[in-house]
Design goal:
The chain is mainly α. It contains nine helices and no strands. Helix 3 runs antiparallel to helix 4 and helix 4 (about 65-110) crosses helix 5.
């Protein structure tokens, strides 16, 4: 797991440990493939904000007004663009991967394989972001972690609450000796129903979007077509 090094101490002098940990948790949600950590990000944000401030102060006649304003906007917006937006996009991508992944996992479990073997077969058979996360968890098992510990730890890298709930239910069923297959069928039904509701919600927003587009574009155009002869005759 990516963790901070106090050798990069600029961030520790500027930010509290609580702030650094908060950003680290957000960055962890970007997954194993992102190698930077909170200290690096916070150092870069601070230094680039200072650079932008002095550049605007130097090149603009009103720099004493615009430089602080733009610097504050940049400082606050950068995490939303670099982290929050990516986390939201990754969450949506993982949710799209979840249905197929857990269906294949359930089929593997139905053949009588244990959970660890079923996860190995499923994650190696499917090329997706979610499969990659499970492959990393299984790699940690090889290094000495228990399967339950590894599955719990990857929840720190998954921003989807739906997937995390499924993993939690799966591990609890395995630990307490409940039927994992029945548990997975219930979770798949839940995922399928959730997807239906999301599609219905998207469809219900279409008329509103069309109405907004009509008001902004088509209504002025129609009015222009209707009134243009009157305007032309008036100008003549």
């Amino acid at each position: 797991m990516k963790r901070n090094s106090k050798n990069l101490n600029l961030a520790y002098k500027i930010y509290s440990t609580e702030t650094i940990n908060k950003y680290q948790k957000k960055i962890d949600l970007l997954g194993y493939k992102d190698t930077y950590n909170a200290v690096i990000f916070l150092n870069i944000r601070f230094l680039t904000t200072i650079l932008i401030f002095f550049m605007i102060l130097y090149i603009s006649k009103l720099g004493y007004i615009t430089a602080p304003l733009i610097s504050i906007i940049y400082f606050n917006v950068l995490p939303k663009i670099v982290i929050d937006k990516k986390v939201a996009a990754r969450s949506e991508k993982l949710d799209n991967d979840a249905m197929y992944f857990f269906e294949v996992l359930t089929l593997s479990l139905e053949t009588g394989r244990n959970l660890k073997t079923a996860l190995e077969i499923t994650s190696n058979s499917i090329d997706s972001e979610l499969s990659y996360e499970f492959r990393q968890a299984l790699r940690e098992v090889k290094y000495g972690k228990s399967l339950t510990e590894a599955l719990v730890s990857i929840q720190q890298n998954i921003p989807s609450e739906t997937i995390n709930n499924t993993i939690l239910t799966l591990t609890q069923a395995d630990v307490f000796g409940n039927s994992v297959v029945d548990t997975m069928y219930n979770q798949i039904d839940y995922l399928r129903e959730k997807k239906k509701l999301e599609v219905k919600a998207s469809i219900s927003k279409v008329p509103i979007k069309i109405s907004v587009i009509s008001v902004l574009f088509f209504v002025p155009l129609i009015l222009l077509l209707i009134l243009s002869p009157i305007l032309i005759s008036y100008l003549k």
